């Protein structure tokens, strides 16, 4: 599965998402894009988008995008906080539905 990590997610998390092809937004060359444009581009190259931005599903109509969005509910975007959710993230990535948000964590 091809996974795109949002800019607000520590890039080192990519090493923790084993068994998937993971890139960060800056690695994809999309650092300057706003969420709507970012999802529009990402849906053509990625299966899933991972973020800690809890507002994203409320700001964007995800049903317009053919990409699964996973929102990590964590106290902060520090690597130690997001790393704790990796087992749950790995479990939901294969079943997350395109055009919807899947919430992981607290």
Record keyword descriptors for this entry.
single chain; 106 residues; alpha/beta; five-stranded parallel β-sheet; globular
Summarize the structure.
The protein has 106 residues and is α/β, with parallel strands linked by helices.
Characterization of the model:
By secondary structure, the protein is an alpha/beta fold. The protein has helices at 25-28, 35-42, 56-59, 79-83, 86-92; strands at 2-5, 21-24, 48-51, 68-73, 101-105. Strands 2-1-3-4-5 form a five-stranded parallel β-sheet.
Give a quick account of the main beta sheet: strands, pairing sense, barrel closure: 5 strands, parallel
Helix content: 25-40%
Low-confidence stretches: none
Radius of gyration: 12 Å
Following the backbone from N to C, one meets helices and strands in this order, namely EEHHEHEHHE
End-to-end gap: 25 Å
Tell me what portion of residues adopts beta-strand conformation: 15-25%
Class from helix and strand fractions: alpha/beta
Give the number of helices. 5
Widest β-sheet, arrangement of strands: 2-1-3-4-5
| Total beta strand runs | 5
Taken from the alpha-carbon principal axes, the silhouette is globular
Instruction: Please state the average pLDDT score.
Output: 96
Describe the secondary structure blueprint for this structure.
Elements: E1 2-5, E2 21-24, H1 25-28, H2 35-42, E3 48-51, H3 56-59, E4 68-73, H4 79-83, H5 86-92, E5 101-105
Parallel strand pairs: 1-2, 1-3, 3-4, 4-5
